[in-house]
Write a structure and sequence with these properties.
The two termini are about 30 Å apart. This protein has about 180 residues and is mainly beta. The chain is built from 2 helices and 9 strands, in the order E-E-E-E-H-H-E-E-E-E-E. The protein is globular. About 5% of the residues have low confidence.
Length: about 180
């Protein structure tokens, strides 16, 4: 069985979904630095890693007037663009059977991360434009740690610690476990 491993993967200044230069299409997720230590992958073990750390992680969730979430809409547009390829407008290309089979095989691959850490000047903002008066809020994250994430051990707890400030005035602290 083939196995791939890396000591450290580092990404810098990444914006995902959207454009950092266009306020109307602000990125759904961006960060200045992400590092993933002791990364390995194999078909049987799936994706494993020691620590996945994000610095200055910013996530923006916007619900438009029609109730569509920006992230879902942008992902759907990406899928549609990649499937259509060179097909005429209105006609959706079919993916080759080998590609579909490959996606099905990897869809359930296990993953195991010892710890996920969000640090630096991190923030999640939310906007809801379905209301008469649009609602906007933000959560500045001073500390987020998720420990013991293992998809193959669904009966074991994953520890979560979240500390931050809601709307720049209300301290928030959440500590607990998820299954």
């Amino acid at each position: 069985e083939m196995q791939v491993g890396l000591e450290n993967v580092q990404l810098q200044n990444l914006a995902f979904l959207g454009s950092p230069d266009d306020q109307a299409k602000k990125p759904a997720v961006s960060f200045t630095d992400a590092s993933f230590n002791a990364v390995s992958w194999s078909k049987s073990a799936g994706l494993e890693g020691s620590i996945l750390q994000f610095e200055n992680l910013v996530a923006s969730v916007v619900r438009d007037k029609d109730g569509k979430i920006n992230i879902s809409q942008q992902l759907a547009e990406m899928r549609q663009d990649s499937v259509q390829g060179d097909e005429p407008a209105g006609k959706v290309a079919q993916e080759p059977a080998a590609v579909q089979a490959s996606q099905e095989e990897t869809a359930a691959a296990p993953f195991k991360l010892e710890k996920i850490v969000v640090a630096g000047e991190s923030e999640v903002s939310f906007e809801d434009h379905t209301l008469k008066v649009p609602y906007k809020t933000d959560l500045v994250i001073s500390r987020l740690e998720i420990t013991g994430l293992d998809s193959s051990k669904t009966d074991e707890k994953t520890e979560v610690v979240l500390e931050g400030e809601l709307e720049k005035r209300a301290p928030i602290e959440v500590t607990g476990n998820i299954f």
